[in-house]
Automatic annotation (TrEMBL):
InterPro entries: ATP-grasp, ATP_grasp_subdomain_1, BC-like_N, Biotin_BS, Biotin_carboxylase_complex, Biotin_carboxylation_dom, Biotin_COase_C, Biotin_lipoyl. CDD domains: biotinyl_domain (cd06850). The lineage of its organism: Eukaryota, Metazoa, Chordata, Craniata, Vertebrata. It comes from Ptilonorhynchus violaceus. Residues 22-476 form the Biotin carboxylation domain. It comes from the Eukaryota. Residues 620-674 form the Lipoyl-binding domain. This is Propionyl-CoA carboxylase alpha chain, mitochondrial. One of its GO terms (cellular component) is mitochondrial matrix. Keywords: ATP-binding, Biotin, Ligase, Lipid degradation, Lipid metabolism, Magnesium, Manganese, Metal-binding, Nucleotide-binding, Transit peptide. Pfam families: Biotin_carb_C, Biotin_carb_N, Biotin_lipoyl, CPSase_L_D2, PCC_BT. One of its GO terms (molecular function) is ATP binding.
Length: 674
């Protein structure tokens, strides 16, 4: 199994009762890692699965895992995974008894699902009323107020147009948060600090909301500056006896989700370093009160913003299985998918609140196909030419929906996987995560491993001093990768030249024998020149068995490894310090790229003679791109704001690019004529 739940009972320890009958066949109206996650539990419960897919997802992992699969349309989600008529037809055609839906749900589908209920089809999740109430941020906020749940100050109605948005924002007081009423996942959200940003935010948020959720309604509320984002997992039971409804509800502790970019979570953990038992209990009780107020009957998540004084405010309730649910499973031992299926079938909860533990610590990193050096992560597309998950590292779980050869396209979220590590305490879980990130092999697309690794080792994060503004505060000029210390620079140079020499020695041999029997005796020392960044460093290397003695900056380092040059991962010891590195690329001119401490460094290794001659090589002139508007990411042009002959000024919008359901305004870099 590519999923490590079987390696440790602490990661995942649910008991499946074969005598507890649920459903024979379940349709999964989703894709990617979450669809694979549901299929895994269904297999353990003996439930057959039906996967739906778009035409570009025909060879996706979730399609291969399912017992049956049906194509529901072309690539755009509105024509496939949100194609309600096609999905309902698949339910009838396959005779599925239940349907699991984790995408944004529109009211028309809920109505169709209600009709299907009379035909014996069960929805894995809460009932229609709860989804409509909690899926609508405007209605959910009003319900939360009535349930005595703390809420963020703001306007509780629908914002009609940009002018009204400006008026409301002024009344609330800047800064404000503009968000889609039916939204989630950071889409359809904008922070506005003045009237101009409010108008622009209203425009883009409404367009993103219409594109992603089929609902362009917006609300505005006060932006809580520098908060923590903490959410409570709830599990509710609703069963019907005559005309009454008797519900039980549990809160399954909190998740810390403050590390974000563009209002999307990047690193999550459970529990939170910030909460004390009293605050945790108060937040949990309010979360349960809200769940009971809407007669909630499934797994769901209540999200809060918490200020520095531990005052907390209701943000929203997600009526689905959250991306970050694995950290809750790790510390409680519950299988949330199994519990959702059991509740949907009508079984009572097997646990009381006192039974819910906090065992150890779990951390989740969202691994994305993104370039972290551009706005902390702009989407990357391509094919995974090489892919290897770090499941050989103890206490590691990887939830993914891709494999080697999979395509990352512009049509869907660029998530590669969710990487989860578990430990008896936070320090152990973070150390495991550091090791897992170093051992994660991803080739063919840009990825955010370097950013994730830097976050989890940063002193502020290690101390628990975090907020939703962590990334812009720690990296005010943008993320630049790991900054090498002098010792780390020497280690990287020593590893690079040792790898270079090991390769030179290998090229002299063929099937274990010298290529030319009359060749001179093997060399034992090399004088090299290495370019790293703006520096050029002379390095002396000598071989001693399987080790290399390297002299850098007048200091000697001993480098030892098995030197398996065919492996994507290379474990190297430098004076007893163990490092896992990856050589990403190399060419005949001595240029090589090495992933070291999470960041990819470009080096050029030359012999002493070649280095002296290289100064005569002409340098290629840099291209002048100041008159060109080049999209920083792949996507679709959804609007063009100018035409040939127009005069534009610096900062003026030229066009709008939509990538992975997010809209981005492309602006002119200087004043000129189109």
């Amino acid at each position: 199994s590519r999923w490590c739940l079987i390696t440790s009972p602490k990661l995942y320890s649910s008991v499946y009762d074969p005598n507890e009958k649920t459903f024979e066949k379940l349709l999964i109206a989703n894709r990617g890692e979450i669809a694979c996650r549901v299929i895994k539990t269904c297999k353990k419960m003996g439930i057959k699965t039906v996967a739906i897919h778009s035409d570009v997802d025909a060879n996706a992992v979730h399609v291969k895992m399912a017992d049956e699969s049906v194509c529901v349309g072309p690539a755009p989600t509105s024509k496939s995974y949100l194609n309600m008529d096609a999905i309902m037809e698949v339910i009838r055609k396959t005779r599925a008894q239940a349907v699991s839906l984790n995408v944004s749900i529109c009211c028309s589908f809920l109505s169709s699902l209600s009709l299907q209920a009379s035909e014996g089809v069960t929805f894995i999740g809460p009932d229609t009323h709860a989804i409509q109430a909690m899926g609508d941020k405007i209605e959910s906020k009003l319900l939360a107020k009535n349930a005595k749940v703390n809420t963020i100050p703001g306007f509780d109605g629908v914002v009609k147009d940009a002018d009204e948005a400006v008026r409301i924002a002024r009344e609330i007081g800047y800064p404000v948060m503009i968000k889609a009423s039916a939204g989630g996942g950071g889409k359809g959200m904008r922070i506005a600090w003045d009237d101009e940003e409010t108008r622009e935010g209203f425009r883009f948020s409404s367009q993103e909301a219409a594109s992603s959720f089929g609902d362009d309604r917006l609300l505005i509320e006060k932006f809580i500056d520098n908060p923590r984002h903490i959410e409570i997992q709830v599990l509710g039971l609703l069963f019907q006896v005559l005309a009454d409804k008797h519900g039980n509800a549990l809160w399954l502790n909190e998740r810390e989700c403050s590390i974000q970019r563009r209002n999307q979570k990047v690193v999550e953990e459970a529990p939170s370093t910030f909460l004390d038992p009293e605050t945790r209990r108060a937040m949990g009780e309010q979360a349960v009160a809200l769940a009971k107020a809407v007669k909630y009957s499934s797994a769901g998540t209540v999200e809060f913003l918490v200020d520095s004084s531990k005052n907390f405010y209701f943000l929203e309730m997600n009526t689905r299985l959250q991306v970050e649910h694995p950290v809750t499973e790790c510390i409680t031992g519950l299988d949330l998918v199994q519990e959702m299926i059991r509740v949907a079938k009508g079984y009572p909860l097997r646990h009381k609140q006192a039974d819910i533990p906090i065992n150890g610590w779990a951390v989740e990193c969202r691994v994305y196909a993104e370039d972290p050096y551009k706005s902390f992560g702009l989407p990357s597309i391509g094919r995974l030419s090489q892919y290897q998950e770090p499941l050989h590292v103890p206490n590691v779980r990887v939830d993914s929906g891709i494999q080697q050869g999979s395509d990352i396209s512009i049509y869907y979220d660029p998530m590669i996987s969710k990487l989860i590590t578990y430990g008896s305490n936070r320090a152990e879980a973070l150390k495991r995560m550091e090791e897992a990130l170093d051992n994660y092999v991803i080739r063919g697309v840009a990825h955010n491993i370097s950013l994730l690794r830097e976050v989890i080792i940063h002193p502020r994060f290690v101390q628990g001093d975090i907020s939703t503004k962590f990334l812009p505060e720690v990296y005010p000029d943008g993320f630049k990768g790991h900054k090498l210390t002098d010792l780390e620079r020497r280690e990287l140079l020593a590893i690079a030249v040792s790898l270079y020499v090991a390769e030179q020695l290998r090229s002299q041999r063929f099937l274990g024998a010298p290529r030319i029997p009359i060749a001179k005796s093997k060399r034992s020392s090399w004088d090299l020149s290495v370019r790293l960044g703006d520096g050029i460093y002379p390095v002396a290397v000598s071989k001693d068995g399987s080790s290399f003695a390297v002299e850098v900056d007048g200091m000697k380092l001993n480098v030892t490894s098995e030197w398996n040059l065919a492996s994507p991962l290379l474990s190297v010891s430098i004076d007893g310090t163990r490092r896992t590195i990856q050589r990403i690329s190399r060419n005949a001119s001595g240029e090589t790229s090495i992933q070291f401490l999470g960041t990819v460094y470009k080096l050029q290794i030359l012999t002493k003679v070649a280095a002296e001659l290289s100064k005569f090589m002409p340098e290629k002139a840099a291209e002048d791109t100041s008159s060109i508007l080049r999209s920083p990411m792949p996507g679709t042009v959804v609007a063009v704001s100018v035409k040939p002959g127009d005069m534009v000024s610096e900062g003026q919008e030229i066009c709008v690019i939509e990538a992975m359901k997010m809209q981005n305004s492309m602006i002119a870099a200087k004043t000129g004529k189109v």
